[in-house]
């Protein structure tokens, strides 16, 4: 069994793969100071609820955009799962060309998404990931990571409005009934929601124009489902893109890890 740990700036996903299917997934708030022991207590309880134990794993793969957390996640795998983890960006061979000026700067999450998209969708791709940041990455038909765009995430923008403007409340993100809001909450929801739709449509159009060839657009991330049906700029909404990419990387490297 494989434990995949995908850590973003806001949430950390723990997912269990039994060799054929993803059988369990849990999320925790990302805290860079959380120790391996704290992770172990939390994880062991959830595993028990799923009828599993720490000792069932023969592999662990970690993708993290929070460098200070990797030490504790690695210790979790070593001390409690008794496996040497495969860490994206350290000892994992991704098997794709990274065609940017400084390949070391490419975020683990963006590279994992690139692989997760390439194994399912053919041709050149744009992968949109809506999280703490909203990223637009171009993946060539051969799987090569070509670069992309990084913009503030929708939650970050909403929080910034509330924090910086004394009279603007904290509001839930949802699709408003009207574009023109008739109260403060409605106006804020419209500005953020339709503003992000406008950003998605505008950037996709510009990327396609610059690329000069057809591109299939795939969206993923916790917020992406909000935009489903609200724009024709996205061809596929794929919530499993990231963990699919991690599984593919594991399959490409497991012999090296076990060896």
Automatic annotation (TrEMBL):
InterPro entries: ATPase_NBD, Type_III_PanK. Belongs to the type III pantothenate kinase family. GO terms for cellular component: cytoplasm. A monovalent cation. Ammonium or potassium. Signal peptide: none annotated. K(+) binds at residue 129. Gene3D superfamilies: 3.30.420.40. It is an enzyme of class 2 (transferase). It is found in: Cytoplasm. GO terms for biological process: coenzyme A biosynthetic process. The keyword Nuclease does not apply. ATP binds at residues 6-13, 132. Homodimer. This is Type III pantothenate kinase. The active site is at residue 109. PANTHER family: TYPE III PANTOTHENATE KINASE. Pathway: Cofactor biosynthesis; coenzyme A biosynthesis; CoA from (R)-pantothenate: step 1/5. Substrate binds at residues 107-110, 184. One of its GO terms (molecular function) is ATP binding.
């Amino acid at each position: 069994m494989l434990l995949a740990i995908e850590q973003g700036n806001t949430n950390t996903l723990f997912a269990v793969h039994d060799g054929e299917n993803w059988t369990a997934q849990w999320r925790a708030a990302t805290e860079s100071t959380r120790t391996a022991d704290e992770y172990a207590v939390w994880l062991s309880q959830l595993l028990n609820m799923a009828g599993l134990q720490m000792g069932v794993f023969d592999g662990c793969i970690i993708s993290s955009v929070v460098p200070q957390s990797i030490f504790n996640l690695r210790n979790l795998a070593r001390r409690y799962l008794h496996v040497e983890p495969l860490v994206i960006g350290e000892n994992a061979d991704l098997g794709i060309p990274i065609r940017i000026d400084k390949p070391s700067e490419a975020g683990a999450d963006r590279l994992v998404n690139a692989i997760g998209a390439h194994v399912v969708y053919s041709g050149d791709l744009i992968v949109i990931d809506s999280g703490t940041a909203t990223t637009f990455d171009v993946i060539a038909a051969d799987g090569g990571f070509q670069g992309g765009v990084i913009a503030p995430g929708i939650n970050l923008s909403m929080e910034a409005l509330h924090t910086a403007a004394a009279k603007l409340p904290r509001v839930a993100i949802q699709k408003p009934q009207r574009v023109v809001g008739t109260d403060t909450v409605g106006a804020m929801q419209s500005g953020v929601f339709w503003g992000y739709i406008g950003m998605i449509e505008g950037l996709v159009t510009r990327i396609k124009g610059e690329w000069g060839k057809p591109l299939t657009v795939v969206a993923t991330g916790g917020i992406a489902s909000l935009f489903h049906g609200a724009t024709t700029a996205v061809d596929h909404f794929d919530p499993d893109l990231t963990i699919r990419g991690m599984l593919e990387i594991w399959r490409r490297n497991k012999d090296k890890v076990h060896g």
